């Protein structure tokens, strides 16, 4: 079910409290954790029984637990245990579980929870995270909401992920993408937005003009994108919540690949003039534009480093498409890609440790990562046509789109390359862009 921007605002506003449960004393240091910096991470066995709920809320409680379980499983770091193996039936979330029953089935962590309907109609969702082998509670929180129960589930999954890995989760996020429909030679393209798991899809443009390359601001729920209407192509800013849209500026020639700076105060883009394409940065407050490259080549797809000091981009200045890094103020650029094939669409990780890219070689398109100095190149996935990587805000997962014939679909893959999954969308989908955390 899709929600209007106003409904989303009201639902988000109703998540009004986030408190530690006071029933139990603060937990001891966790004995159970996942070291995600290891080269080969074994998924952590975790048990997530259905949350408790009364009357008509019983199904909703089960649904919340199911979304939490699905989020954690999809990360590739957790292995939820089949409910049929459970020995203890959780009937009271205020009491400590029978840890021995959970050790028998090799559960290392356990999540219990309940949903309680308040007198004013709101839902109070509580959860507790238990270290099964240490026999203590690791975390416990409660949320109040009106109707946005899926977001509550994502928030719970984020807290479990952070508590057990030591890094921020990425489940309470959204993805904007280009929805594609119609025959291949007459595709209608409109902007759509969804939760990171593919639910709550809604459309934010009408399809009466061609839209390309949506990109999220790192600091707000705003996007920048290209639109081809009846006039020249334009770069727009769009507030996801209010629907307010404004033109970034009118530029001569074609404009490509607009993307925000880390502080959200600038947009960097590629402008075509004649046969060349150079990089420009625009200050969104003063609307002043600064030219950054003048290479006599095609420079495009720029992306800032997380600290805003450098820019990675693709250029054919060396004869074919390769990846270069330079200062954010312009100047000399250093080539960092030297493998076989052509490299494009580089995107700097929010962690700063990796740059994702598309690589075309031997008739295949691959999604890969390398360090900012070009070392450590690794291919995560390859196929007939993969393109357009975008990072989760914690820098551990990428989304991209793949067209295997017929139309594009969105996929995700983690930085190990072992956990690839398709993200469900109502129709064909391309150019995904991940939002910053919503909370």
TrEMBL record:
Family matches, as Pfam families: PD40, TolB_N
Keywords in alphabetical order: Cell cycle, Cell division, Periplasm, Signal
Region Disordered, annotated ranges: 414-439
Localization per record: Periplasm
Keyword NADP: no
Signal peptide positions (record): 1-30
InterPro entries: 6-blade_b-propeller_TolB-like, TAT_signal, Tol-Pal_TolB, TolB_N, WD40
Domain TolB N-terminal: residue ranges: 33-138
Purpose of the protein: Part of the Tol-Pal system, which plays a role in outer membrane invagination during cell division and is important for maintaining outer membrane integrity.
Family to which this protein belongs: Belongs to the TolB family.
Oligomer status and interactors: The Tol-Pal system is composed of five core proteins: the inner membrane proteins TolA, TolQ and TolR, the periplasmic protein TolB and the outer membrane protein Pal. They form a network linking the inner and outer membranes and the peptidoglycan layer.
HAMAP family xref list: TolB
Listed PANTHER family: PROTEIN TOLB, PROTEIN TOLB HOMOLOG
Descriptive protein name: Tol-Pal system protein TolB
Organism in which the protein naturally occurs: Methylopila henanensis
Lineage: Bacteria, Pseudomonadati, Pseudomonadota, Alphaproteobacteria, Hyphomicrobiales
Gene: tolB
């Amino acid at each position: 079910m899709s929600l209007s921007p106003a409904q989303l605002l009201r639902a988000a506003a109703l998540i009004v409290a986030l408190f530690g449960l006071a029933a139990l004393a603060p937990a001891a240091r966790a004995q159970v954790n996942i070291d995600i910096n290891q080269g080969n991470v074994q998924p952590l066995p975790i048990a997530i029984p259905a949350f408790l709920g009364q009357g008509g809320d019983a199904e909703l409680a089960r649904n919340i637990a199911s979304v939490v379980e699905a989020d954690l499983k999809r990360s590739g770091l957790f292995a939820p245990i089949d409910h049929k193996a459970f020995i203890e039936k959780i009937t009271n979330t205020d009491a400590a579980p029978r840890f021995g029953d959970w050790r028998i089935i090799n559960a290392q962590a356990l999540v219990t929870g309940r949903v309680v309907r308040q007198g004013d109609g709101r839902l109070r969702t509580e959860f507790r995270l238990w270290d099964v082998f240490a026999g203590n509670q690791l975390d416990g929180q409660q949320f109040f909401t009106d109707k946005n129960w899926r977001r509550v589930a994502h928030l719970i999954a984020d807290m479990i992920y952070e508590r057990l890995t030591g890094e921020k989760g990425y489940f309470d996020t959204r993805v904007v993408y280009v929805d594609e429909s119609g025959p291949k030679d007459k595709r209608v393209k409109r902007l759509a937005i969804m939760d990171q798991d593919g639910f709550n899809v809604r459309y934010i443009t009408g399809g009466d003009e061609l839209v390309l390359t949506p990109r999220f601001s790192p600091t707000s729920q705003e996007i920048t994108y290209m639109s081809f209407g009846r006039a020249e192509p334009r770069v727009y800013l769009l507030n996801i919540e209010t629907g307010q849209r404004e033109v970034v500026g009118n530029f001569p020639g074609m404009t490509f690949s607009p993307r925000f700076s880390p502080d959200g105060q600038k947009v960097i883009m590629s402008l075509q003039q004649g046969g060349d394409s150079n990089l420009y940065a625009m200050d969104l407050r003063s609307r002043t534009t600064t030219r950054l490259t003048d290479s006599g080549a095609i420079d495009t797809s720029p992306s800032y480093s997380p600290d805003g000091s450098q820019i990675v981009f693709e250029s054919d200045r060396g004869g074919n498409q390769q990846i270069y890094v330079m200062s954010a103020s312009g100047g000399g650029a250093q080539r960092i890609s030297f493998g076989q094939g052509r490299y494009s669409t580089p995107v700097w990780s929010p962690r700063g440790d990796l740059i994702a890219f598309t690589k075309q070689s031997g008739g295949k398109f691959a999604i890969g990562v390398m360090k900012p100095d070009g070392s450590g190149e690794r291919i995560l996935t390859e196929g007939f046509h993969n393109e357009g990587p975008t990072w989760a805000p914690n820098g551990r997962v990428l989304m991209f789109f793949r067209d295997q014939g017929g139309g594009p679909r969105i996929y995700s893959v983690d930085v190990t390359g072992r956990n690839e999954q398709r993200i469900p969308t109502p129709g064909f989908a391309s150019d995904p862009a991940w939002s910053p955390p919503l909370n």
